[in-house]
Amino acid sequence: MKKLFMFLMAAFLLVGIAACNGDDDTTEAPATEDTTTEDGGETTDPSTDTEDDQFEGYDYPTGLYNYKFQTSEVRHTFMAAAEKYLMNTMYGGVPLFANGGFNLYSSRLQLPVSSYIPVMGFGTSFSTMTADDSTVLMADGEPGRPGAYTYRSAGTTNPVTWNQWIYDTSTDSDFMSIYMDMPYTYQFNNDKTGYELLPSMFSANPVMKDADDGNNPINGDPYETDETAKGTVAKTWEFTVREGLEWFYHPDTDTSYITDNDITADDFVDTFKYALAQNWFRAVSGGGDFLNQTTGLEGAADYNQEQTTATEDALGIRKTGDYTFELTFLNFQSEWNVRYFMGSFVMTPVHMEMVDELGEDYGTTNTTIAYHGAYYVDYYEPDKTLVLAKNPNYHNEDEFFFTGYEIQIIEDAAVRFQEFEAGKLEAVSLPTENFDDYKNDPRLKRVPGATTFRMMINGLGTVDEQQSQFPGSTWVPEPLLANDDFKNAMFFAIDRKYLAETVLKTSQTQMYLFSDAYLVEAEEGVPYRNTEQGQTVGEGLATGSNGYNKDAAVALWNMAIEKLVDDGVYEEGDTIEMDFYVFSGSEAQNLLGQYIKTTFEETFVNEDLGIEVVINVEPKDFPGIYYDYMMTGNFDLSVGGISGSTLDAASFLDVFADDNRGGFTLNWGIDTSSANIGVEYNDGTEDLKEVWSFNAITAVLNGEAYILEGEEADVPNAVIDMTSITPTGFSFTIDQFDNDAYENLTYTITEFNQVTGVYDDVTGMVDIDATTETIDITGVKPYPYDYVVEINYTVPALDDAEFTTASEWFYTAELVEYSEIRTDETSAAIDIIFNNDDQATGVKRDIDGVTVYNAWDEDITADVTVVKEQDANDDWTINITGLEAGADYTIIADTGEAFMTDPYVYYTNLEFAFSTRSIVDAADIATTTASATFDVTLLNDVTGATRYVEELRVLDAELTEISAYTLPAGMTRVNMTEDGLKSGTAYYLEITSGDLVELVAFETASIFADATVTADVDMATINLEMNAVTALTPEVITNVVITDGDTFSETIDLSAFDFSSIEFEVDGLTAETEYTVTVTTDSGEVESFTFETLEE
Amino acid sequence: MLRYVIVRFVWIFIVLSIILSMNFVLVKLAPEYPPTEQNQAEIYYEQQFNRGYMTKYTENNIDAVRAMDNSELKEEGKVKFLNEKGIDQYTVYNPVPISDQYFIWAKGILTEWDWGRSTKVQFNIPVFEILKSRIPVTLRLNLIALFFYIPIGFGLGILAALRKNSITDNVISMSVMIFISIPSFVTMTFLLMIFGYGLEWVPTQFVSGQADFAKQVSSMILPVMGLSFGAIAGLTRFTRAELTEVLTSEFLLLARTKGLTKNQAVIRHAMRNSMVPLVPSIIGSFVSLLSGSVVIELIYGIPGTGRIFIRAITRGAYDFNLALGITAFYTIISLTAVLLVDLSYGIVDPRIRMGAKK
């Protein structure tokens, strides 16, 4: 009876609360009614009605959809519907606050705008100044130079890198945005109410390539374009680099090797390719890169994996003229998308000559990069200062007012603020503790942040769910957190204004998942939050009090806990303990934790049931709090904040999807795949009322997706049975085989081509009708071949449109299951057990022939004895005798199967390399330029019997005898010196013991300490440094002869001089010709080496 | 004597080795936070591999790869799986035993003077290069502080001792108690607020290397004062105590009775005797100065070793190589100071001969 009373009270309270909807809605409840936007965009919340009632008159859309290029109204409507769904279910976590703050600006600084504009901020870089530096103090405490206008600021840390393609910190980004140019830059629009994206390093907006422009060199097909609601989109776009751009080098930079100062299309194309090949972070990840689905380039993934002529030809980065190049994207792009993609300092060239010269050292200091921005870093002292001066080569000298920047590195926020108060900085972020003193200062500006910090929820509820989501996890999830009412109760329990302004002081009050820094339509420049659709999201969520409604929180809590007690999940008198993780090392986070603890413990108490919630606040280190806890489900509640691209809010929706498609899903136990979001909109042709899933909305706002009944369609796909894989066969099943939505299912087997790097169709296995769900394939090739199964199908609902899906690639099994090589001094035995899984019953693999190669890859099968044996188990042993001791060999065993003719497999599967046992225990050979001293000790044989050195021979590289020694009997160790050898020459020492012979290689010392040749087409620079051969003083060069062995011969006679180190040039050489340099020294040493001139 | 010094240097080397070895092991046992960014992580692990701290192999067995994708096969301990986007294979880095790492590390230092590269503070820059740029600043600051506080500390100490129980002594003793009690960073903050931001007599932050010499000198004033106040107080107190004790000793009374003036007795006998414990304490206090300068460097923006040391041992962002390099620097300074202390006994009191045969 008591429980019933409580339930009725709660229900009554909720009805009452719902009736009080409005601005002054301190008793507002969760949404229970439809909401409609003025312009026809309407979203419906499904929280109370049954789905049938709620969506009466609605359609569940099926088809191929792409709303990336839909009208602003449609995109905003869908975006708002998606966010509202997350807010009503708390599937995106409970919004806490945004990371906004406050800035103070100096009185001499004249900001171009008074209110914050997304992207542009307050436009500090476009500001002017009312007084020059002589009127203010610089970092050294002295007034600056008259006539100079330096923007003085402070950063917190040193730059990590100076290479824009691998930058990863906001500090680097802040610095780079000053000294790097961009292809397109953001400028204020004429009335300074928004921004424009205008050409900077480029001279014009991108131009699309359409069918009239001919064929795309990548595939030979006409360039592709498409019509959308907003106009024409294309896959290939051409860019024009501004003529006259020049690199600028720091005065201390070594530029002696630089030959080209102009910035042309080559610089962009070469840099893009190099960045991709080198796997530079910004080229392959981080969003806006060349590999992701949204902005990915044609062929970029293949080129990233392997740089061959084939992958380069297929890469969508091509130079089309001295100042033009084109990019081919995987997906259609609008002109704005393309400009936005290129509106970044990352998409600028690096100086390739400098990269080649400096290697890993490129971009490690301010003097190891070349500049193209408006400023360059003139002086850098780590932990102290960066001084930037104007780049005299910058193409638009008058674009910026400041004559330079002076950026101090000050870690401590309080010290930074003191420096500002002392008049030494133009701007500073206001520390929390000073907020009360400055909150009415006219110089104070509020800066909205891009990150909404949320309380992430592990709503998996049960151990089974936990282990299903995270196999092997030992975390026990809290059942209360899986309850939707309790999730909403947590939302309503938090007084966000108090949290942001009183507890955290300088944070921004935020009840939504997207702050007002985000735009859905970047081209329009209107923050999503300010649009009509964006403002409807909060309806029913106590917007007047930023989502705070304690009564609703208590009511929802009571409903949740009573249900869970009824269900037997909890018992009366329970104390429910939950961990709440906050970032360690932050006082603000500590305060946040304490606020949540106090609030939840006060709010979530049910005295009737004697149940209370206890929150344990635990600080966790960054980034482990994400990687080790939230992303792996090892938490109850945790604070987290992820920001996305502020200019493309829709692309950020994927971090809320239940399938972790964005890699940053932090809330668990959610379902965003079911169609339960009602959307009313006009697609340009008619008014529509449809029901969509969150995942489907996310997909269509970011590109093309096949939608089935309002959800992302499960399409036919081949699932490989990994246990079925044999050397020549495998099985797969076709997912959705029985789904009537798909017809004409066929499969194609493709094989990875090791030469071209692409998957080729396997002859005889193309477009085979799929008549059964499980299909067995035979006749493929063994490991290391790999395959992909493609499923082709048509969709009747889409006018029999044809689609293809591809399986994951996989290797076939190895041919040899087990092998072992046993060797002694003169023989080897190789045991082979074949993998016969794919052979018919009774049929086993066979070894047809064996070829033996020595270390020089010479076929010596005829010189040795090879015996093949097959035992009763059909396992094989290959015995080889007549080998030399201590030598390297390779054998190739031919199974006689067809694929053995393929060179790739030939050298991979049945190739066995081994060395015979050496008879030499230690051969210490010390050499001079003319002699070698041998200290040779022999090993005992395998029986332990002592071996004796009987004969030694010194052989040249051609194995021709130079000298031979027959040794007295009984010598197990030999120590002797061989004179009269040539310097820098390879020799062998042949050791004979009984029937055994072994060769030991050695090389005499060179007379050169260093000999380098820098060859060009028709000349070479030769640098020689001599060793001390017989005394401490190095050899003196007396004569150098350079000859091609034919017509060219030049002698440099140095006998009148006393040089042990020379550098000289030789002219008149012929391209691509080998020359020999012969050097004679005063002690009569003669040594030569060769070099080759370059190709013309 | 020379033999003694040589033996002591050998001991310094041994102690340094032990301290660094212990540090190395402790640091290696601590949780590691490699760079999270893929490229930097790859560089980091390749460096670990190249230095022999880790082994690596490519895992392309599709079952294992899938297990890694699905977190069924997890990284345990300091094992790392690195996966290139779009490629079904992982590079698995496995740390070798710490003892092996230690020998590689020690060999790198002893044979190639290779202290490794910074992994966090100044990514990929050799540790020794970083130290080379920072040590001069820190040493200069501390040496100046040393030469600044000695005469003042001595002077005040002698004055207080000679005027024991007078107002002068009381004022000095009171000041000593205050400054001994206040940590150097508090003193520094006060000095900064008064002389820097208040009176504007000196720069509010340590100036960069670009500034003129006079400016650089003036920017030394505050940190030197911040470092010195505590040290002056300590030295004053110690000098006063030692001298007071000597002044009441019988040999000084004898000196006076033999006709020496008070000044002669104090200067020739009292002060010389009180120097025996005082001089070593001065050298030893140089080490205290160094540790105090770590915080002062942070407050005054001095680009010295202290700042990077703090950053190198910041939780969650350890820079092992750099931390060990700086530890070595501080350890060498400390051990050398101990040697100088021992040697100084012989200079102050000729009766003491270190290393003399019994």
Please tag this protein with its features.
heterodimer; A: 1096 residues; alpha+beta; 7-stranded mixed beta sheet; 6-stranded antiparallel beta sheet; 21 helices; 32% strand; disordered N terminus; B: 358 residues; mainly alpha; MetI-like fold; 2 domains; 3-stranded antiparallel beta sheet; 3 strands; elongated
Q: Please identify, by name, the CATH architecture of the largest domain in chain B.
A: Orthogonal Bundle
Order of helical and strand elements of chain B: HHEHEEHHHHHHHHH
Query: Can you tell me the overall shape of chain A?
Result: globular
Terminal Cα span of chain B: 13 Å
Structural class of chain A: alpha+beta
The number of strands of chain B is 3
User: How much is the radius of gyration of chain B in Å?
Assistant: 27 Å
Mean pLDDT of chain A: 86
Q: Helix segment count of chain A?
A: 21
The computed structural class of chain B is: mainly alpha
In the CATH hierarchy, what is the superfamily of the largest domain in chain B? MetI-like
Main sheet: strand order of chain B:
1-3-2
Q: What is the highest CATH level, the class of the largest domain in chain B?
A: Mainly Alpha
CATH topology of the largest domain in chain B, what is it called?
A: MetI-like fold
Principal-axes shape call of chain B: elongated
Report the biggest beta sheet of chain B as strand number plus sense, adding barrel if it closes. Answer: 3 strands, antiparallel
Oligomer: heterodimer
The low-confidence runs of chain A, each spanning 5 or more residues with pLDDT under 50, are 1-49, 900-908
Percentage of β-strand residues of chain A: 25-35%
Q: What average pLDDT do the residues of chain B reach?
A: 81
* Total of DSSP H or I helical runs spanning 4+ residues of chain B: 12
